[in-house]
Amino acid sequence: MSSLGSMMSLVSIISLGLLVGLGLIELVWIRLIRQHGYPWADVAASIGIKIGRRLVKLATAGLVAPVYFWAWDHRLWHVSLKSATGWALAFLLVEFAYYWQHRMHHEVRWMWAAHRTHHSTNWFNILTTSRTSVTGLISGDWLFYVPLAFLGIHPLAIFLMIAINLTYQIWLHTELVPKLGPLEWVLNTPSHHRVHHAVNPRYLDTNYGGVLIVFDRLFGTFAEERADDPCRYGLVKPERSRNPLVIVFREYVAIARDLWRARSLREATGYLFGPPGWLPDGTGATSRRIRATATPSA
User: Fold this and answer.
1) Alpha helices in the chain (DSSP H)
2) Predicted model pTM
C-alpha cells in the first residue's frame, strides 16, 4: 500500500499547483481583461482559514484513521485494487458517500455549522476552494466514508479518492468557464457549482455532487443555472467579517445561544439537528420556507 501513499502525495502536490496556477490565471483575467477589482481581504481570510484547516488536520489525523482501519479489519468483503473495476467501484462509492455527506451539511444545522465556512464568502473564485471546514472532526463528516471500509475498500484508497474528488472541485469555483454542453449531464461543472454556491431562492440546497452530477439528478436535488436568474453568492444572511475565527465559529456561537434559550428537548434537538434557520414556531428562514415564500421571479 506504499504506492497509495505515494499517489496521495502526488495528488496533494497537484492540488496545490492547481490552486495557485488557476488562481493566478483568474486573477490576471479579472484584473486585466474584465478590469474589475479583486477581493484581496476576502482572499486573505480564505488563506487564513486554509492554514487553520491544515493545522487541525495534522493534529487530528491520528484520531480518525484508526476508525477506518478498525472497520477495514472487520470488513464484509474485499475489493481488489488490482483491476480497473475495483478502482471504479471505489470512486463511485466515495462519490455516493460525498453526495450524502455534502447534502447533510446543508440540511442538518450541526453539520452546517462547519460547512458554513465554505459558503461564507460573498465572492466566487478559485480561492474559494481554500475556504473549507476547520471543524469537520466534530461535525462528523468523516463518518460517511467509514462504511466503505466495512464494504472492503482499503482506507488509503478511500482517502485517495476523497483527495481526488476535492482536487477536481478546485476548477469548479469560477465564473470564467461557461456551460460545457453534453458534459453538463454527467459531470459537476463550474455552472452547476455556481448554482450550489448561490443564494437565489430557486438555487438553495442543490447540486451536491463532487465529480459527478448524476446523484443530484437521481435524488431530485439538481438545479440548472439560468441566464434570467444570475447567481448571487454567499449566505442568506451575508457574512461581513474577514476574521477567520469569527467566520469559523459564528454558527457554533449561534447554536449555543439558541440551546441556552431552548424550552424543551424538542426545541434543543431542532436547534441542533434541524435544518439551518429552523425555529420552533415554523417561521424560521429555512431553505424550504425561503423557496416557498419567494416571488415567482426570484
Assistant:
1) 2-28, 40-73, 84-107, 109-119, 136-139, 146-150, 155-168, 190-197, 214-219, 244-261, 265-273, 287-293
2) 0.94
